[in-house]
Amino acid sequence: MNSKLILILICFLVFLPEIYSSINCPTGYTLCTQRTTPYCANLNNDRENCGACGNECEGPIDGGYCCVNGKCTDNTGQSCSYNPPSTTPQTTPRSTPTPQTTPTTHFGFPYLIKIKLKGDYDKSFEYSTIYLNGEKLKEVCRDCDVNCNLQNTKQVDEIKNIDIDKYCEETGYIQIAFADSAQVDECGSVYEACINMTNTNKEYCCQIKCDEEDCQNYVAFDCDSFNCINLQDIGIKQAICDTNKCNIRIFRNVLNKQVQISILFYDKDGVIYYKTSGNINKNFIGLKTFYLNNVNDCENNNLEIKINIIDGENLILTKKVGEIKC
Question: What's the CATH number for 234-325?
Answer without folding.
Answer: 2.60.40.10
